[in-house]
Amino acid sequence: MSFLDHLEELRWHLIKSTMAIMILATVAFIFKDIIFDVIIFGPKKADFPTYRFLCKSAQAIGFDSFCFSELPFRVQSRTMAGQFSAHIWTSITAGFILAFPYVIYEFWKFVSPGLHKNERSNARGFIIVASLLFFLGVLFGYYVVTPLSINFLGTYQVSEQVFNDFDLSSYIGLVRACALSSGLIFQLPIIIFFLTKIGLVTPQFLRKYRKFALVIVLIVSAVITPPDIASQVIVAIPVLILYEVSIFISARIIKKQNKKAKAHG
To answer: Which residue windows are transmembrane per the record (predicted)?
Structure first.
């Protein structure tokens, strides 16, 4: 295929992916009450599962952290189109999350013809694994990162004379950023898989820079979570586990490549 033919092929894959996202976004738009009252504003409520778990855990060791009846802030919309815009963009975000497996499938259909037959068979479970990791990441971001961030930022005050009134777009932006960023971070093993396949990354490289990766993970955890050690560790542990899994995946790929090279040599 020529370069223009490849662009035409890519265009159709993008169109199909966009259509899938918009169809599911329309469904999310219709179910507004579930999307907003249950999902988006769930981490604002005292009975959110994460707060209940953390409250019971804190009480078990003699503390009363995360035990509250109501978070001391309000969410408001201060622009004429604020609520409608939030409804539209939140629906599109929900559509993208729900359509992620299909988007990955379309991406795979575009990339796979350029791979050898054995490479396609080795990556047979790519769509399932990538989708599973993405959904796990989104759930982790929603149930762990989001409530920790909302609890800290929603209760933080520089003075008792200042009351927290958060704009609707700011609140939704925090929830969206926590969920989507975690979903993308959980794609690390998939990224390492492909980087190893094309020779840009080796397990030796990943082991050598493990300490730097640890520092980066802790810095990112400190940025997206409240400034306490417990919250940072809770967020950092899964990412570090993913990094170790990535090293294992990279080592397996290199081992198979070396074995194949010896067989042909």
So the answer is: 21-42, 86-105, 126-145, 174-200, 212-229, 235-254
DSSP bridge pairs for 165: 74
Q: Cβ of 44: how many Cβ atoms within 10 Å?
A: 20
Residue found by looking up tokens 């940025």 in the block = 223
Q: What are the residue boundaries of the structural domains of the chain, listed by start?
A: 1-64+80-136
pLDDT value of position 172: 94
Per-residue pLDDT reduced to its tens digit, 201-215: 888 888 888 888 778
Beta bridge partners of 164: 73
Q: What is the pLDDT of residues 222-264, one digit of tens each?
A: 666 655 566 677 777 888 888 888 888 888 888 877 777 777 6
The residues, any chain, with a CB within 8 Å of residue 129's CB and separated by 6 or more, are 189, 190
Q: Residue 76 forms beta bridges with which residues?
A: 167
- The Cα–Cα gap between 251 and 257 comes to 10
- Euclidean distance between CA atoms 229 and 221, whole angstroms: 10
Q: Do 146 and 175 contact (CB within 8 A), yes or no?
A: yes
Which is it for strands 164-167 and 73-76: parallel, antiparallel or unpaired? parallel
Q: Which two tokens stand for residue 33?
A: 């009450």
Cα separation, 92 vs 23, whole angstroms: 9
Q: Quick one: average pLDDT of 69-73? A: 85
The residue type found at 181 is S
- DSSP-derived letter for residue 225 is S
pTM for this model (two decimals): 0.83
